[in-house]
## 1
Amino acid sequence: MTGDFSKGSVVKTVLSLAIPMTFAQLLNVAYNIIDRCFIGRIPENATLSMTALGVCMPIITLVAAFANLCGMGAAPLFSMERGRNREEEASYVMGNAFFLLLLIGTALTVLGLVFRRPMLMLFGASDNTYDMAKNYLSIYLLGSVFVMISLGMNHFINAQGFGREGMITVGIGAVINTILDPILIFKLHLGVEGAAIATVIAQFCSALWTLYFLTGHKVLIPLQKRYFRLQASRVKRIMGLGVTGFTMSATNSLVQIACNTNLRFFGGDAYVGVMTIINTVREVIVQPALAVTDSAQPLMSYNYGAKCYGRIKEAIKFISAVGIIYTLVMWFIVHTFPQVFIGLFSKDPQQFEIGIPAMRIYYFGFFMMVLQFIGQTTFVALRRSKQALFFSLLRKVVIVAPLTFLLPRMGFGVYGVFAAEPVSNFIGGAACFLTMMATIWPELTRKERELAQEHEVQEPRKKDTA
């Protein structure tokens, strides 16, 4: 493994990272999916237990958002510095990111435990679900640091070209979580608390493996303590670029809060449970699309630093074609067989009755979502953080969140909450992708042409000197 992304086939390089990354991201969401599968089969209060877990989801999403703030912010910088052959600066970027993850993870644990009651009530908890939600969240927050390390630092494994090892990071946790869940939930009768304990133990093991690999001899640039010292300018660059990934996750948390609040008001706890199932299915089917776009990011960042602009354009074309085809196929499958997906998490007839139409509405035009991913990835990879941030806020804050409140009150009732998502996909996805193509693509073409002209000028000079 050379980690030189300026050579070889772009398609093969992206696929070499995307395939293991797809499995890695699927395994990553498996933590929550496995919990929900088992919780949905608790003999008593299964539906309420699922709803309680859904109430906790905005906080769980927020923890992931802070992991993205550091990991997704530092990884492109790390790749660019590698492309410029500045390995010491790349080491500082990774070391600073790790120390930030430790600090933020600790702060989230403390703040989450202190303010858990007002947060859970705000996020849609009712008198029927609060105690279960509190018990699950209290345990989960104790493992926040482990979540931050495993999610945030895994970006540096992938950024060095070790896609298989990145997959192992989350694979370890998923396997352990799968083994522990039935034992703790059913055998020891711990219910939702057992699911939380299993998740924390699994994340701890994932974090341990991540640190073991990044401090070993196999990596190109290892994690070393002497690079932990924070520098204000470096932290600013990491945060500036990472704010896009953070905003994407944090605004997901905002939308989850808006959905839970309105669903409980217009429909009750059962509808919050259905949204939990829908979000779980979305987490699964969106991962291959995210893996393809995310796997192209280190390649694009590296080649931008190495001034290989044509390879960036080739990567954009490839991920666009694959992403659109995949999401069109998944839209057809979900629309045709919604009952199959609901049946994975619930046997309650009421969940099927309200869930099938809700799922068809929510996933309408699903392929438009991938256009947002492509645009965001390209903007972040080329350090266009302001554009990436703008379109992230546009889709979630400006479009989805307000529509979640407005549509139910405009005569669409409870299903208006589910309709907000497809509207945002069409508007936000198209705006992000078209803007990227109208700004980034011409710039890459211009830089590519200028570089070719420089080479033409330099060649005669070399011959004359010879």
Note: The first helix runs from residue 10 to 39.
## 2
Amino acid sequence: MRSLLLALLCGASIAHAEKHPGMTALIAEIAGNDADRAAVLTVLLNRAEKQPAILEAIARPAEKTKPWFAYRPIFMTEARIAAGVNFYRDHADLLAAAEADYGVPAEYIVSIIGVETFYGRIMGNWKVLDALTTLGLYYPPRQPFFRGELIQFLNLPATRGVELDLVSVQGSYAGAMGLGQFMPTSYVKWAVDRDGDGKIDLWASPADATASVANYLAEHGWQSGMPVTLEMTPGPGARRLRDTGLDPVFPLSQLVEWGYQPSAAVDPQTPSNLLRLETAASEYSHFAIFNNFRVITRYNRSPMYAMAVHELAVAIAERVGE
């Protein structure tokens, strides 16, 4: 009976194989000669819906359309700081353990979750299957990336034993999931079963979610005890740099030679780079950015995102320490 059902599914799939462009090739890539797997994938992808609103949203992310002085107030609010302090205190033991194991300060774990989902209040209301199908099959600018994420998502239950209803699970318009908004590849590579219940739950398990964020940052090179960023004051005749990227390729002493004075003492040989952010219309502040700043941008490539995470983390830590 099961073989007959699968045969019927496979037969139905042929008629609908191109509900989405490239769907047949995608199924073949994942399933190979496994007809049962192909049938299941066909049913799943036939239930996915293209979402034009997602294509519109991804074309205008805040990190690319807003200057820093407009982007910063989205995250640096009293409500987000206060909620971060509460999250920190509610999960102090979990955060202390994660910090001890991974070397990532608790406030940065909390801040990532705060920026990503407001500590779980805003985890996204898009079906992840719809989001990744839309971006993986209908968004040429980043199609290879999102197609890969779609494949990882469809394979999640098999690769990590994740208990997800792939049809209904919700996330961001880009397909990110849970408290820390992990993309499927991140789920596969860096998510952690911290509470030891045999499954990874990034939605309802603060232990799994906080440890997974810490593991992600640690695996991307977080250096315990090292700085993230440092405000620099340009002196008269300070050298105006072209975009030098985000990698820390200059010793801090080089920035000083170029006419920028640090606001606190940091080893002059610490690898750094210079970041300029618009703090008001045509007004700028300058920052030395270090390896740990670069690590945060592995989560989201925007330097404004990384600065928001840093400033929120500092504000939370100051409030917790009061």
Note: Residues 1-16 have pLDDT under 50 and may be disordered.
## 3
Amino acid sequence: MRRPDPALLVVMGGISAALHVGKLAPALPVLSGTLGVTLVQGGFLLSLVQLAGMTLGLVVGLAADGLGLKRTMIGGLLVLSGASLLGGWARDPWSLMLLRAAEGLGFLLASMPAPSLIRRLVDPARMNTTLGLWGAYMPFGTALALLCGPLVIALVGWPGWWWLLAALSAGMAIWLGLALPADAMASPASTAAATRGWQQRLRRTLSVPGPWLVAFSFAVYSAQWLAVIGFLPTVYSQAGLGAALASAATALAAAVNMIGNIASGRLLQGGGRPERLLYLGFVAMGLGGFVAFAPIWQGVDPTIAAGLRYTAVLMFSMIGGLIPGTLFSLAVRLAPDEHTVSTTVGWMQQCSSLGQFAGPPLVAWVAARSGGWQWSWLVTGGCAIAGLGLASFTGRLLSRKALAWPTGGGRQPK
């Protein structure tokens, strides 16, 4: 029997972790009724899973080479499993918030080492394509959670949904432990070297502009994407859609993000310029957010307006998906050297988590202040404009460094 592709197993592990990020959105209407979760508390529940990444991403990135990339990912899945198991017994919003923060630590440990693991497990000719596939782990996991969550919750309640995902993550941790090759773990000599050199790796990573650009770009992308996708079930529920239909519509909106992620890897592999993909993604998100939420549809047939708004959400997510796949490839290539890839990805994860932490509560606050979702486009539009500026700086950096974007794997000299 043929063994599964180790890089594909890493992607599956990421999907298992992403399910925990996406599991909350379909449960929010139920949690509002059973635990009294308010709209703003719901925003924080959506974003608290990013607290660990926001505060510890760089630290975990520095430590991953010493701890072992495989060991770090498996440990993260086990933390997710334990926190989700306990979360099923939460009986008030504050307990659930505390356990969401613990899940955030597990998510960080499970997702942060993956790009470095993929870099080790695939040959250079496959790296862009595989990293583009990895970039789809979050929308795939989110879409799967949005699609399955209402069905599971209807059958066994929201605690059963938490416990099911706890069992899934535990099973995935065991599978990775058995299936990943041993050389994916650090040797004692490399562990000692990584421990001694963490200050030097930190200084090298943060003293060049590349890691900062990819990190801030991911922050402004993730802030708007999670805010829109996370609140869509609530938006549609308030508009009168049934829970199953609202979650299915949101699941599709999350799933199409995978198209952009996978396409980015293929386009980069074919020689596409990364800054152009970033431009396209941020323009689509800015326009999509405006069309979806701005009060511009007065006098238009409600059915037609709803269809156009939803199409804008799909474009927002699908073309915006070019951004994360491109940024994962940039993070690997713009790291100062091969020993700082995990640190660069950790810094990108930290800033991404900051964006995901800030985005949903900000959108919820704007909605609460304005009495509806019609001004949400101001938040998404501001993030898109910032992303365009960062993409411009990234293009200038790539031109100055004369970094080729070949179909085969690493940097090429001038």
Note: The CA atoms of residues 278 and 323 lie 5 Å apart.
